[in-house]
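Mods, move this if it's the wrong board.
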Amino acid sequence: MRMIFLSALSLAVRAVVAAAPAPARGPGGDAAPPAAQQPAAPMKVGPARIVDCADPTYGARVRQLRKDDGHEHNFYYYRDPWNADGSRMLGIQSDLAQKNWRVCLYDGDGVFLKELFSIDKYDWRLCWDRNDPAMLYTWKGSDLYRFRVTDGKAELLKSFAPLGLKPNGPSVNQAGDRILVITGDGTFRSFHLPDMGQERTFQITVPAGCSVGWDKPHYIGCRNYIDTAYRGADPSQQAIVVYDDTGAVVHKFESIGGGGHYDFSPEGRLAYFRLPAGGRGAPERPLEIHVVNLDGGGDRVLFSVPREKCRFHNLHLSWPRKVSDWFVAGFFPSRPEPAPYEPPFDEILLVRLDGTAKYLARTGTVYSAPAGRGKTGDMFWAQTLPRPSADGKRVCFNSSRSGTIDLHILYTEGNAPESPEK
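Not the wrong board. Structure tokens:
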């Protein structure tokens, strides 16, 4: 049985739609015109208008950080916007053309604190320290930095010149005492923190005709284990390979992976999905969301939807760093709301290991790329990419429900703060 993962890029290319963002529904208030049609007012980096409401379909509390003069969104794949204790959150603000990216700091409830840096200074593909809530790690070219958000000071940890760093950027192991980067020659390099001693290095090999997406390898958040994946033109030629940072293979998950939308639990369980398939005489296959142990055993389907009821275009899985028994799936729609509406479409879904699941909220987002990937009007970053805080009480996600891309916070435990508009 082949398990086919499609990367965000290939999904976007294959299923680009030219629909304008849907009118605002729930958080966000009144509808706004599509971003590409709005006046080209200059963006001011700074606070958004906080809009709180209950999700009209599922009732959860959602906070929108509405900023109509530009876009703001979280990070991609495994990258976590939440700091070690959940007291701070990162986001990216950009202008309406989605240029001039700025990495910004918010408190844990989305209140804007300050701009940290523009991406011509340091790279947005960064990671928080796992123990110090004021510390993150970023890079530029060949150089790895420690960056303190309280005073904005950057300290050069190590230069790898003349080698540059791969676009995955740094990641930190579960204990928070080792940091990983990959240099331009394909060498995985990890170091002890904070002294950058005890270097460990290794390289990986992949089958002929296959390639590695170098924006994805990282410490998975379980022990010293590292996620890598490769894929080939033949969908059966793909795998997720988990290594220890000594270079020893922990396990190889055959025929899955390569797309980067899966995630690992603190114990190393892998949550992954199989997309629906069928039509034109081909066998029907439902959407299935699985969990499997790190050794490859105990593979189970936790959530399944028949192909004919799947209304979404893509999805993303994310596990809270300190939660073992559930993770979230964020569905990304391919078109305006269908008639009649039927989930899953733009939902955030909580999936438990006991096989139960419940929809938490709708994101109200629509992906529209009339000008093509990376050009003005492209709403690629409207992908919801939900990411829970370490304790799972809040989920940060993206949505274009109000015409521009805004950050949102979904509260999962009924502990949302008082709205500033009350």
